[in-house]
Amino acid sequence: MKTVIIIPSRMSAQRLKGKPLLKINDLPIICHVVKKAKESEIGDVYVATEDEEIANVVKENNGKAILTGIHKTGTDRIFEALEKAKLNDADFILNLQGDEPNIDPLDLINLNNIMIKNNLNVGTLASEIKEKDVYHNQNIVKVITEDKLRNNNFSKAVNFLRKNLNKSVSNVYHHIGVYCYKISILQKFVNLNQTKNEIDNKLEQLRLLDNKIDINVSIANSTPIGIDTEEDYLELKKKLEYKS
Question: Does residue 140 contact residue 163 with C-beta atoms inside 8 Å?
Answer without folding.
Answer: no
